[in-house]
Design goal:
Elements (H helix, E strand, L loop, with lengths): L3 H7 L3 E3 L2 E3 L2 H7 L2 H22 L2 H21 L4 H19 L10 H19 L4 H10 L9 H28 L3 H10 L2 H30 L1
Antiparallel strand pairs: 1-2
């Protein structure tokens, strides 16, 4: 994380005259915008509905994959990131392969999401274990918070990072048992609920906590300089 604007965008923030701020527009952009939300919600919803009606994995996967491909084409038409479109296409191909391969099952369509959440959760957890919590560097880039590893702000920034660990862990804790039990409809529903809506809440909470930490640090610095 070396680009403040990139970090801000990922956290749903918008650059203003007074630094960075969170508003409804920037928060919407942070969770992918209308198209990104549709990409996160509609394929899984389609998968769940089609599977519930037909009990056929091939139809459910076909419906979800087809819808995802439409979104990818929409990004290309709008001249958005080709890299993101390619990654999306590869993810769809992998999910479809896992669900339709010999010995596969419909719930396998959601397996790539488990690995993604595990990877992100591990990265945040590792940063905590090596005493370099990622949210500390985010605060440093966004608010110019220096020396946070040697100050009282360290524990608070570690807590914010642990919350991110908990977010990814919660997704796995809820969804993996549904996968093991082959509860496809419940798995798809939990994927939707714990997707964009939950992520938006996480971004809002992160912003509130980081802003308060930065404000307290600035107040302490001003008091020491008097």
């Amino acid at each position: 994380m070396s680009n403040p604007d990139d970090v801000a965008r990922r956290l749903g923030l918008e650059k203003s005259e007074n630094g960075y701020d969170l508003n409804s527009k920037s928060l919407l952009a942070g969770i992918g915008g209308p198209l990104g939300i549709a990409e996160a919600v509609l394929p899984a919803t389609t998968f769940s509905i089609v599977y519930a009606v037909t009990s056929e994995a091939v139809y459910a996967v076909g419906g979800a994959a087809g819808l995802s491909l439409i979104f990818i084409l929409a990004r290309l038409v709008r001249r958005q990131s080709l890299q993101q479109a390619v990654i999306g296409a590869l993810a769809i191909a992998l999910a479809a392969f896992l669900a339709l391969r010999d010995g596969g099952q419909a719930a396998d369509y959601f397996l790539p999401g488990f690995f993604t959440n595990a990877a992100y959760g591990f990265a945040f957890l590792l940063s905590v274990l090596i005493r370099r919590p990622l949210m500390g560097y985010a605060a440093q880039l966004l608010f110019g918070l220096q020396g946070w590893r040697e100050s009282g702000q360290y524990k608070r920034l570690r807590l914010v990072t642990i919350i991110w660990v908990g977010f990814f862990a919660a997704r796995l804790a809820v969804q993996v048992p549904f996968y093991i039990a082959n509860e496809v409809e419940l798995l798809a529903a939990s994927r939707v609920v714990m997707g964009a809506p939950a992520y938006a809440g996480l971004l809002a909470l992160t912003w509130i906590m980081l802003k308060r930490i930065a404000r307290d640090a600035q107040g302490k610095l001003e008091a020491e300089n008097k």
